[in-house]
Amino acid sequence: MSTPTFFDPSTRHGAPDPHRSRARHPDRVVSRARTFIVFGMLGLAVLGSLVGWTRYESRRWQREDLPGLHALTTRLHLSDLALWTEARYTRHPSQADLFSAFQDSPGAPEHFPAGSIVSPSPVLTDPLSVGAPTSRGRLRDAGSDGRRRVCQGDARGAIPEERSLAVGAARDSSFELAFTP
Amino acid sequence: MTAATESPLVRVEDVTKIYHLGAPDEVRAVRGISMTVSRGEVLVIEGPSGSGKTSLLTIIGCMSRPTSGQVLVGDRRVSRLSETALTSIRRETFGFIFQQLHLIPDLTVKDNVMLPLFPTGMTVPEMEDRVDRAIRSMSIEHRRTARAGRISGGEQQRTAIARALVNEPTIVIADEPTAHLDSELSAELLENLAVLNAAGTTIIIATHDPRVIDHPIVSRRSVVRDGLIVDETSP
Amino acid sequence: MRRHLKILDFALASLRRRPFKNWAIVAVYAFTVAVVASVLFLTQSIRREAAQLFVGAPELTVQRMVGGRHVPIDLAVGETIVAFPSVVGVEPRFWGYTYDAVTESTITVMGAGPGMATLELVKGRLPTHATECAVGAGVASMWGAEVGGEIILIDAATTGVLYEVVGTFESPSDILTNDLVVMTAEEAALFLGLPEGKATDLAVRVANDNEIDTIAAKVKRAYPDSRPITRSEVLRTYDAVFHWRSGMMLAVFSGGLIAFVILAWDKATGLSAEERREIGILKAVGWDTSDVLELKMWEGVVISLTSLILGLIAAMIHVFILGAPLLTPMLRGWSVLFPELHPTPNVDPYMLIAIGFLTVVPYVAATVAPSWKAAVTDPDAVVRG
């Protein structure tokens, strides 16, 4: 004999529940999860569309604006962005010398905030850069005027000819300058 | 086949439960209890507060592991099962009605009743169906969408019972189920338990309420004192 | 799958129980993501623009240095350099700055050498006579100048000189030309007070890009007091702009990090008694440890993913559609002439993934980890109250 279930004697196995109706379940389980997933997908779709739009705009800029900007850069020999006009080394960071960054004093307060955005060009501190001031050299013995000249080494370590030549033969001896910029 | 000849649903063999073992505040809640629970019976475990009733219930109901001894549910030794396996047995076999009810006050009555069904493989319509039936059986449809923290004590008790029954357990364990109920509601609860039992559900009740102890549905009484069964009667 | 959806649903129900608190967390978190993402988008956009713009810069710029200072260079040096093999042209650059006390702005004065006067991005034309000039948008706006109008600038001799504005630079070039006043080369040298026979520096055009370093080395050997700056060094300069170690970026990221740490701390300092009790109830009614942890994971994912998506959308709209109005005051500092930013929309998908990873993973970890202990505890402890 089949035993009735506790909850409702009429709901034996297989018998449909006459009271059950989807219309009576406005707060359906999992609808919250589905709603979240739908909104999440919507959000991702918006994000994806924005990313797609940025790619389109980027290509459009390269196609339409960049040629004109190149022409300008080439015509006027421009080398820097016109963003921060407070100081020489912020307006033309690629052309700046060490002096202008420390012209007040090395401990001077920064031209906030541009100076905290624009660090000194790495060129200034890169020993391999041809233009960078270098403190290493090979000492030559004194020339006829008694001055001991240091020959500036180039990036590859070769000793260049001096513009003002030492008179007479000189013996090389090398030492390193203890200079800290 | 009668309850007497069938093998027991639950067998407890020389089980002890010691809290804070080795510590200065060590408590020996159960001190070597052996007992069985047969299919279809209504077992009352009676005893004063602190006698070890609740600890015994949690061991029977696979909610905690005994310090020593073993528990068998059907043929399975559950005392050394993994946590996952134990949880599965607990969920499928037992329905708990806690003394403090342990409802989540910010959840609706419906969501509280539905709690045990979330980790199951049931479909959503099946879950809703079960919940509806459980809620209707406890006559709290009108409170379905109310927050559990905002309904009366009696309605909370019925919500807790509905939650215990929603998984259609084989064994219902109730810890002081009439603690928050007046006479009328207590009588209604016992009626519901009687119907449940008539449908084949085994019931274990821990109580010191004489209304329950002396109720006709009770098929067996065990008296617990200081962690030991001191008396057993069948009215 | 069904089980996971159901646990997600319960997670959403849980979050909805404390709507104000959770929406506040989403708002703060999304705002933090938006700020950090805005800065990243804007700075990356400017860096990429610079990288693409300055491929047109001179291959070599030769300066003269005295005492570490950039000083005017002899035009004769250019005559020497132009004789080097592979050098196709040397043009002296006459440029410098002038400060206008009335507007408190610093203008870059630039001489335009011989060449085309009409360009796509010049409305009107470049100056061809000494009394003419072309101005950038910032200067035009500051002086109220337009094509056909006039401006007066004070030269190095403190003389006020009147110039007719024959051209203005169009908006897409603002980032390059905003503060420029372009004159003829001769007029610029006169205006800036450059000594006769000297230029600010020399722009050297080299036929073969592979020869640039060689020519730079030759220049340096020939003139040890010179400082050749190659185009790649210009590009590297702009790579270093907005470097993460720069003060501004550190300040922004630190702010974002602090905001996140506060959020995570609130989570990671452990569960409240209520949360622990709830986990115990879930365990007691038949939830597995893994179910409980999955629930916590979903709670974390919902909050952090929502914040991430909202924050990124807000950042992209703020930077690429509105032109970063909230960041502009931070960037412009004391600059009086600051261009209107039209950052080229440029988003690196890897950056988005990195931001997403850094947004979601730590927050989910901070949500799940404190629940671990409660999740593995026997529910007995709850039952016993």
Give an overview in words.
By secondary structure, chain A is mainly alpha-helical. Chain A has five helices and three strands. Chain A starts with 30 loop residues before the first helix and ends in a 7-residue tail after the last strand. By secondary structure, chain B is of the alpha/beta class. Helices cover 52% and strands 19% of the residues of chain C. Chain C has 14 helices and 14 strands. The radius of gyration of chain C is 30 Å and the shape is elongated. At the A-C interface, helix 1, helix 3 and helix 4 of A face helix 1, helix 2, strand 1, strand 6 and helix 5 of C.
Q: What descriptors fit this protein?
A:
heterotrimer, A: 181 residues, mainly alpha, 3-stranded antiparallel sheet, 5 helices, 3 strands, 34% helix, elongated, B: 235 residues, alpha/beta, Rossmann fold, 4-stranded antiparallel sheet, 26% strand
Query: What string, H for helix and E for strand, traces the elements of chain B in order?
Result: EEEHEEHEHHHEHEHEE
Rg over alpha carbons of chain B: 18 Å
Low-confidence spans of chain C: pLDDT under 50, at least 5 residues? none
| Main sheet makeup of chain C | 7 strands, mixed
Oligomer: heterotrimer
Q: How would the global form of chain B be characterised?
A: globular
Summed over residues and divided by their number, the pLDDT of chain B gives a mean of 87
Measure the end-to-end span of chain C: 34 Å
Measured by DSSP, the beta-strand proportion of chain B falls in 25-35%
Q: Based on DSSP secondary structure assignment, what is the total number of beta strands of chain B?
A: 10
> What class do helices, strands and sheet pairing of chain C give?
alpha+beta
* Biggest pleated sheet of chain B: 6 strands, mixed
